[in-house]
Known about the structure:
The protein is an alpha+beta fold. The protein has a single domain, classed as 3-Layer(aba) Sandwich (Glutaredoxin), CATH 3.40.30. 40% of the residues lie in helices and 22% in strands. The protein has five helices and five strands; from the N terminus they run αβαβαβαββα. The protein has a five-stranded mixed beta sheet, with helices on one face. α3 links the parallel β2 (44-50) and β3. The longest helix is centred in the middle third of the chain and has 16 residues, at 55-70.
Amino acid sequence: MAALAASAHGVLxxxxxxxxxxxxxxxxxxxxxxxxGGKLGERATLVQFSSAFCAPCRATRRVLGEVAGMVPGVAxxxxxxxxxxxxxxxLAVLKTPTVLVLDADGRIVxxxxxxxxxxxxxxxxxxxx
Length: 129
């Protein structure tokens, strides 16, 4: 029975990991340059919460950097989760990497927990711009 429960949890975790989605608690929430410690993009901003020893964070940094370089007016900001615990708590960041997609006004449009696929990030940006 325990093996079945663990297997079900593993399958569910894999399906949700890295998926870019709308999260109810983010609805209408805005973030500014002062809170994030960097300038927002003209069209959209990709905010990544990372930690020092997180291997998926490095891959996520690469993906988000590539997307920001491909799409004009999009900025990528990386935030050290351990150094910004107040913001982490306020935004309910439970694991790293967590990625927030912000529109031009700093409003949270999408959220991903885990390493997102490049195609999913580009699709989420389509909604933000």
